[in-house]
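Ticket #249: bound-state structure for adenosine monophosphate.
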Amino acid sequence: MKILVPVKRVIDYNVKVRVKADQTGVELANVKMSMNPFDEISVEQAIRLKEAGICEEIIAVSVGVQQCQETIRTALAMGADRGIHVLHDGDIEPLAVAKILKELANKEGPTLIIVGKQAIDDDSNQTGQMLAALLGWGQATFVSDIQVEGEQVKATREVDGGLETISVKLPAVITTDLRLNEPRYASLPNIMKAKKKPIDQTSPADLGVDPSIRLEILKVAEPPQRESGVKVEDVADLVDKLRNTAKVI
Ligand code: AMP
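RESOLUTION: The complex was predicted; output attached.
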């Protein structure tokens, strides 16, 4: 089977995100960008399926600015076989990304699309679900374990209060949760090899998708500062503070 893995270029998860002075968004200038962590988990899962002889080809796709090619190269260095870069300058919303991925799925014919459960920049958690709906495919979201069994995928999902195991008919869309696996680091030889792997470039227009923005961001603000804690003397003091200061009991 072929597996399509969307990989988004986002602010690195170690970076302290700063809101722009005019509150229209967050600072991106001179900020370290990396692959969305959930997408690293998707790439790792696709590689494990390839190593298990279940998958023949892994295609990494990124939608966005020219530098998204670096994100695709990272996926190629980890073990993906080739890349597709959908060049788009400026913001793009999950629905447009889902429409683009649908067109690519129709062209490439993957059996499985492994999407991150959410991108850590906008925290939308929408693309995988929208993609499955647009394709009319089954979906298993927030997956912490998958087993491919013939024409089905058995997926364990992290739901409120426990785990749910479902069976989904292929082709399907999977969205990855944190505990699915621990992504590998790319080795130096594989980083060198990745430079030779092909990346095709296309655009939303080539795919017949209108990427225009439908949502208006009214304001982006820093979360309120957390107040520092206090040390209590003893249990009586704790109860007193909970009752009279915090007023929670
Ligand atoms: P979101 O719905 O924005 O939280 O994103 C969920 C997942 O969709 C991400 O983890 C990626 O796998 C995929 N995705 C979203 N935006 C893009 C993009 N611009 N390029 C490639 N993949 C994307």
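RESOLUTION NOTES: The chain has one domain: 2-223.
TICKET STATUS: resolved
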